[in-house]
Amino acid sequence: MNLCDIRTVRELLAAFGTGTKKGFGQNFLINAAVPERIAEECCDARDSVIVEVGPGIGCLTAELAKRYKRVIAFEIDKTLMPVLKYTLGSFSNVEVINEDILKVDLPAVLAEKAAGERVSVCANLPYYITTPILMRLVECGAAFESITVMVQAEVAARLTAAPGSADYGAITASLCYYGVPKKLFTVTAGNFMPAPKVDSAVVRIDLYRDKPVKPKSPDLFFKVIRAAFGQRRKTLTNALGTAFPTLNKEQLSDALTSLGFDPRIRGERLSTAEFAALADALLPLLPDSTK
Ligand code: SAM
After folding, report:
1. Distance (Å, rounded) from C-alpha 227 to C-alpha 83?
2. 232 — pLDDT class (breaks 50, 70, 90)
């Protein structure tokens, strides 16, 4: 069965009394070469367990199951469960769990089902919640080796942007704390059913085992990043002044100058490591409640 054949997709959904749901961000792949390539490039170790978010009718799941040790897939749409039972029935190494990825306790599930195994993530993400899912995956504490996601092309550009570029933002600086994001390839809108308005791209993030940037207070580090990009047009001194009202302008410009920055610099020019250094410089100046 070709799970990317558009007629097969339509017939399967109709046969099980369901259809594509916009509310769940369902844009199914209809070109078999795409899930094959994503599965091929998402992970280096074939003995890995792959966590998939949103298997849909299972086209990417099947390609992952062919290549890796096991697949644990989380699908929110319960009407797809019987479809997946049918399409993936021949794979003994696939488990589909009917859960919202934003609500499931991933470390607990993995401790139960994949203790001691190498684990990576692979997903064609629902576009309406790309960033929350991605941030949950990196923040949840599960020891993933890599996370490969298909996202809208403009989001892919943001995830992989260099400091100082127009696409660089809070998500880029935060993500680079956890790992190294790299764009793998573009997938044009015509490869999906229904076709979205924009093209997509696949991004792979290789996660650090030992993070090279170690801010003294990770909470403050993320707060500084959010402050810097929350008011992008302001200088960093002014943006930080709004976010940390107990600090005066002189303290902020002194902190920036001590790190070798012009106090008129904008936050978008700072790398992840520089945000960490800035947060460390502000830490002793702040009351405990804001750290
Ligand atoms: N993997 C399939 C493919 O590539 O054709 C479907 C991808 S489709 C873009 C996104 C999938 O994520 C849908 O199956 C949708 O129901 C599922 N989904 C949406 N929100 C979800 C959530 N919060 N948790 C788990 N799955 C979700």
Report:
1. 45
2. confident
